Amino acid sequence: MKQLTRIVGACLLVAFAVVGCSHMPGSGWVTLIDGNNGMDNWSVSGRAANWRAEGGAIQADKFMSEGKIASVLVSKRSFKDFELRVEFWAEDDTNSGVYLRAPNPDQVNTASGAYEVQIWDKNPNPKYATGSLVNVAAVEPIYKAANKWNTFEIVAKGTQITVKMNGVVTASIQDAKNTQDGRLGLQFNGGPIKFRKLAVKPL
I want to staple 163 with a disulfide (CB 3.0 to 4.6 A). Which of 123, 146, 149, 171 is the partner? Predict the structure, then answer.
C-alpha cells in the first residue's frame, strides 16, 4: 500500500510539473511580460500614458499629456534576429502595434526605421489594418482583433519577416531596409490595449 501511495504521489508530481511548464517558454526564450510582471523590462518613449500592470496584463488606456505622437513601451534590450510571441487584447477602435528593430529608443516609429506590426481594426487605410506590417506588407483579407485575446507569432531573420495572427500568416515579406539590432516597442495611440504575454527567442 505504501509503495502504491509513493507511485501515485510521484505520478502526481510529474503531472503537476508538466502542467506547470506548459505555460512557460521553452529553452532560449526571454520573457519580457508575464501577466502583471515585466514593467521593469521597458521604458516609455513619446507621450506619457497610464501604462501599468493591472488585471493580469501590462496595459494603457489614457494619455497623461497633450501631443500628437504615440506612447510606446520600449524594451531595454535590443534584438536582431528573433522569434516573438505576443498575447494582446484591444477594442475595435484601438490604435496600437508591436515595433521591431527600432534603431532609436527615443523615437520609435516607422519613420525612424522600425517595423510595425499593426493592431488597428479601423485603420482608414485597410491595407495596413491589424496583422499588417505598416507601409511594408499589406494584409488581406481583413483580420479583426477586437474584444478578444489574440496571439502574434513574429519571426524576423535577416531580410525575412513573417507575421502570424492566431496561427494564420497575415504578412510575409523580404525587406532589406533594416536588418540591424533594435528595440521592441508596444504602442498606445488611442483605445485600450493590453499585453499579457510577451516572450522573445534570439535566433
Answer: 171
Distance CA 194, CA 188 (A): 9
53-89 confidence digits (pLDDT tens) = 999 999 999 999 999 999 999 999 999 999 999 999 9
Q: Please name the amino acid found at residue 139.
A: V
DSSP letters for the chain: -HHHHHHHHHHHHHHHHHHHHTTS--TT-EEEEETTB-GGGEEEEES-B--EEETTEEEE--BSS--SSPEEEEEEEEESSEEEEEEEEE-TT--EEEEEEES-TTS-SGGGT-EEEEE-TT-SSGGGSTTSBTTTB--SS----BTSEEEEEEEEETTEEEEEETTEEEEEEE--S--S-EEEEEEESSS-EEEEEEEEEE-
Residue 58 corresponds to which cell in the numbers above? Answer: 501590462
Verdict on whether the full-model pTM lies above 0.90: no
